[in-house]
Amino acid sequence: MIGAGQVGATIVESLHDEHDLTVVDVEPPLLASLSYRYDVATVSGNGATRSVLKEAGIASADLVIACTSRDEVNIVVSMLARKLSAAKTIVRTTNVEYLEVWRERQLDVDFIVSSELETAGAVSRIVGVPAARQTDVFADGLVQIVEFDVPDDAPRGDVIGRKLRDARIPPDSKVAAVIRGDRLTVPRGEESIERGDRVVVIGSPAAARAWSAIVSPSERLVDDVVVFGAGATGVAVARLLLEQDIRVRLIEADGARAREVAEELPGARVFHATGIDAEFLERERIGRTRAAVLALPDDAKTLYAATLARLHGVPLTIGVVHDPVSIPVFEAAGIDVAINPRAVTAEEIVRWAHDPRIRQLAMLEGDRYEVLDITVRGESELVGRPFRELPLTGSLIGAIVRGGRAIFPHGEDALQPGDRAIIFTESSRVAQVERAL
C-alpha cells in the first residue's frame, strides 16, 4: 500500500489481522505510528519509483493499493505495478476525470475509487432517508442498511419501548443491532428499542422509509437541498442530487468558480456568496430548504456554516468533514450527519482486499462493525440448515438475495448455494464469516 495518511491508516486497521501488509510513504512518522499500532512492514520512500517498490516486495504482491493524496503519484504507482508484478491495482483519485478515463478503458488499472463520488453517494443516501445518520444500499438497491439515532422525544408506540417479539416491525426488515451507550447487542425477542438508542436496520428501501417515519415522524421527504461550497465534492453532490430530481442551490464564495459551476450545472441555481451572511440567508429563504450539505474546504468554517443553517431553520444538516477528530465535535454541536470522504473511500478500497466473493462492504461505528454482501459456497456447513438452528455468534444474516429478489429470513428459512447473504458482524469476525460461508 502506497500512502500512510488517513485513508491508508483506515485500510491498515481493517486488513492487518488477515493480510501481510507493507506500507510505503515518504513520511517516516506516519509509518512509525502504523508499525507501532499494527503488525505491518514499512518502507520509507517515494512509492512512485521502481527501486522503492522493489524494496517493498512488489514482485510477490497480490494487491497494490495506491491511496496517497496525489492522483498522479497513484497512477504512476499503478503503471509501475503492472510492469513489476502480476498484482491487481487499486487507485484512489480526487479527480472525477480520471474515473471517466478509466471507465472508457484508457487507463490500465483494475479499480479506481473517487473520493468525491463516494462522498456524493453517501450524501444522497442520507437525503433519501432523512432520519438516518448513515445508510448504504446493497444488492443493486434491493437491500438497504440504515443506522438511526432514536431521539429522546421519539413517540412510544408499536415499536419504541416494546419488546421486539411484540413490536410491529416494518415488513421486510430486521434489527441488526441496538447500541446503548458503549454496549452493542444483536437483539433477540426480549430486547427493546428505547429513546436514545442507536439502531442498525437491514431491510428493503420501503422498510427503511417506514423506519424513518417511526423514529422521526416529523421528517418529510427531502426535495430541496442547499449545497455550501462548489468545490469538486460540492459539485459531485449537486450533480447526483439533480439526477434524482431534487432541487439544488449552490453557494460559492469565489466568483469565478461560481460562474464556472453555473455553466457546468444549468439545472442548479448558483449563488456567489459566502453562505455565512445572515442577510443573504434570510433573503434567499435558505431556512425553508429541507436539507443543507456543507462541503467547504475547512472544518471550522463548515461547522460554523452548518450551525448558522440550523439557526435559520434548516431541519437536516450534513457536514463533509476532512479531519476525523472533527466528527464528535460536529455531533456534539447538533449537526445531524458528519461524513468523512477519506473514510468512505477507504471502505470501498477495503472490499477489494477481502474474499473475492464479497460484492459489497459497509463500515459502521468507527469501523468496529461491517456489513458484508457475500456469496454462499455450495460446501458451506450452513447451507440447508434452518436459521433457527444456526449457532448464536454475534453476527446476523439480515437478508438473502436469491433469483433477483431479496428475502428477509425467518427461522424456517435456510441458505442455499449461490445465495448472496447480507451480514452484520464485528470487523474482527469478518475472516470467520468468510470461512463459514
Question: Care to describe what's here?
Answer:
This protein is of the alpha/beta class. It is 32% helix and 25% strand. It has helices spanning 6-15, 28-37, 50-55, 71-84, 96-103, 115-128, 205-215, 232-243, 255-264, 278-283, 299-311, 326-332, 341-353, 430-436; strands spanning 22-25, 41-44, 63-66, 88-93, 111-114, 132-138, 143-149, 173-180, 183-185, 198-203, 224-228, 247-252, 269-272, 291-294, 316-320, 337-339, 358-364, 369-375, 396-402, 405-407, 420-426. A 6-stranded parallel β-sheet has the order 13-12-11-14-15-16, sandwiched between helices. It has a 5-stranded antiparallel β-sheet with strand order 6-7-10-8-9. Strands 17-18-21-19-20 form a 5-stranded antiparallel β-sheet. It is globular, with a radius of gyration of 22 Å. The two termini are 28 Å apart.
Number of strands: 21
Rg estimate, integer Å: 22 Å
Walk across the major sheet and give the strand order: 13-12-11-14-15-16
- Which segments are poorly predicted (pLDDT under 50) over 5 or more consecutive residues? none
What is the residue-mean pLDDT, rounded to a whole number? 89
- Characterize the quaternary organization of these chains: single chain
**Proportion of beta-strand residues:** 25-35%
- Helix count, DSSP H or I runs of 4 or more residues: 14
Which bin fits the share of residues in helices? 25-40%
End-to-end span in angstroms? Answer: 28 Å
Question: Structural class of the secondary structure composition?
Answer: alpha/beta
Envelope shape: globular
Mind summarizing the main beta sheet? 6 strands, parallel
